Task: inverse folding
């Protein structure tokens, strides 16, 4: 630049370097060459003029208090239309009214920080608005303190009004308050709001549909070509048409042997049916199309898999997996599943349980209400031993946990010892806390039968059924005397041989048979001919062999359970999910 200055000086020309461009020159340049900015500038000027004439700020507040915590929602709108939103999370506990006051105070503080002079507040709390206006009195000490704090804040503004609005008109502040209470412990500082212009699943345009159809057609053509090359018909067609066999020796022998059942007519493979005309061989989509027409088409009757396969054969079609494909297609039919007949077969196999020794497990159940007996007794509580089938029962006016505990203590523990397990249903008196504590004290396991499978307590149900059957037959019309007849009915049950064990419950418990009334009236050899010494000897022998008797009963019971299980499982239709 200095060389240019020396050269130009000989022509009386002085070189002056250019000064820096000022900000005003840049602004003038932008204004000259940006005519569209003039409208924006005019709008800003008009807004400033509006601000001088109308300086009212609109404030919407709401508070939320729940088990997660307290949250405040503040929405402040300036006279120019700018909106400031705040979702405030409180780190202290607050009631709903306290949260409403906190939200209002937070909104007034925000408005004062932004130099607002006129504020018009809106809240959906009738109590807060009425207290501030003086219509309601604040009697609680906290409410009085909050009211004084709001009134002191209101004095900082030239003009302040507050109005109560419905909740549906305060939804934005309510949403901000819920965000503040729900995300109290989260690390989010800002949550952007994203707008979706269209749903994720929308109807495709016509061009898209055309492209999709073209793609589907191309895919189908390729798959059909690939399927045709690997079709089950290909080896037979090649052998019958050109005499070509597979390279594998065993496979070639198989094709040569089975080809005698096929014939090729006009390039179409047919199967020589034994009971009728030639059956056309199908493959791939043709199989599904035929099954669809036969099953749920215009001539279909939604038949089962076997009927569908037989009908397809009679119509003249065949492929190797016809029976299996028909069964699978019928299973997948939605209409057949929705309108199928209800199956009453058991869905689970029988799982029998065996008790290894007497009085180990008892089944407990309540029967009632029965006809009212003397003493207003209408319930019967029964416990049945799973091994010996011994039944303990008694009549009650009402069966509570107190009666259950007393019955177990008096009739079970004090007579037969402490059992290992008691099985019952989910009756409130059986699963109550006092009953559980009593059983836990004696280390007795309480097992409950679920409503899904109440047969778990089937032994108790069977015993109740046998007792009620005898009561009905013995009392006939006088049903109210069932409580008086209950001891003799139990005696008859204990001295009757059980099918499961082959022995009477009395003999399995005491080692010998009980003396019945007929033996007293018409003496038998055991009752009338035995001397006291001989009787003592026989009793001692019975006691010694009682374990053998119980072991034989245990084996017989296991055998009977196997017979019952086999009979039960014949009608089981497993439902696998």
Result:
């Amino acid at each position: 630049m200095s060389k240019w200055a020396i050269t130009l000086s000989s022509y009386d020309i002085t070189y002056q370097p250019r000064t820096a461009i000022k900000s005003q020159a840049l602004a003038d340049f932008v204004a000259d060459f940006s005519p569209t900015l003039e409208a924006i500038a005019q709008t800003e000027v008009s807004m400033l003029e509006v601000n001088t004439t109308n300086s009212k700020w609109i404030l919407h507040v709401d508070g939320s208090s729940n088990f997660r915590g307290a949250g405040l929602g503040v929405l402040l709108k300036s006279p120019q239309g700018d909106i400031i939103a705040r979702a405030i999370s409180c780190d202290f506990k607050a009631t709903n009214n306290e949260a409403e006051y906190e939200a209002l105070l937070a909104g007034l503080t925000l408005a004062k920080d932004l130099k607002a002079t006129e504020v018009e507040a809106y809240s959906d709390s009738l109590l807060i608005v009425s207290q501030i206006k003086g219509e309601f009195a604040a009697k609680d000490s906290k409410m009085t303190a909050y009211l004084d704090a709001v009134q002191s804040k209101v004095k900082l503004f030239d003009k302040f009004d507050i109005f109560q609005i419905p909740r549906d008109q305060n939804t934005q502040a309510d949403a901000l308050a819920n965000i503040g209470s729900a995300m109290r412990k989260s690390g989010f500082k800002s949550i952007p709001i994203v707008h979706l212009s269209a749903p994720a699943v929308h109807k495709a345009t016509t061009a898209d549909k055309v492209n999709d159809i073209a793609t589907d057609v191309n895919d189908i053509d390729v798959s059909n070509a690939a399927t045709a090359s690997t079709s089950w018909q290909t080896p037979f067609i090649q052998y019958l048409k050109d005499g070509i066999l597979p390279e594998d020796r065993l496979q070639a022998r198989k094709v040569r042997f089975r080809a005698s059942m096929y014939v090729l007519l006009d390039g179409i493979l047919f199967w020589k049916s034994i009971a009728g005309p030639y059956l056309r061989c199908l493959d791939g989509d043709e199989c599904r199309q035929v099954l669809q027409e036969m099953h749920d088409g215009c001539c279909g009757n939604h038949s089962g898999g076997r009927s569908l396969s037989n009908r397809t054969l009679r119509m003249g079609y065949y492929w190797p997996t016809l029976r299996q494909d028909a069964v699978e297609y019928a299973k997948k039919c939605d209409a057949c599943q929705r309108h199928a007949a209800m199956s009453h077969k058991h869905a689970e196999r029988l799982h029998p349980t065996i008790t290894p020794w007497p009085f180990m497990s008892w089944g407990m159940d309540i029967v009632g209400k029965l006809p009212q007996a003397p003493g207003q007794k209408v319930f019967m509580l029964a416990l049945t031993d799973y091994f010996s089938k011994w039944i303990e029962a008694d009549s009650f006016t009402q069966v509570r946990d107190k009666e259950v505990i007393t019955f177990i203590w008096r009739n079970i523990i004090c007579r037969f010892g402490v059992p290992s397990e008691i099985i019952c249903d989910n009756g409130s008196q059986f699963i109550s806390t006092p009953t559980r504590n009593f059983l836990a004290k004696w280390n007795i396991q309480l097992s409950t039968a679920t409503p899904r499978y109440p047969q778990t307590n089937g032994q108790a149900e069977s015993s109740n059924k046998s007792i009620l059957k005898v009561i009905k037959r013995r009392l006939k019309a006088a049903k109210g005397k069932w409580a008086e007849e209950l001891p003799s009915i139990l005696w008859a049950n204990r001295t009757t041989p059980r099918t499961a064990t082959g022995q009477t419950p009395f003999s399995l418990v005491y080692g010998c048979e009980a003396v019945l009334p007929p033996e007293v009236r018409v003496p038998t050899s055991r009752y009338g001919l035995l001397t006291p010494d001989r009787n003592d000897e026989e009793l001692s022998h019975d006691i010694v062999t009682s374990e053998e008797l119980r072991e034989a009963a245990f084996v017989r019971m296991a055998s009977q359970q196997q017979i019952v299980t086999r009979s039960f499982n014949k009608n089981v239709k497993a439902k696998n999910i």
In short: The two ends are 92 Å apart (CA to CA). Residues 213-229 have pLDDT under 50 and may be disordered. The longest strand covers residues 56-66. Residues 206-229 form the longest helix (24 residues).
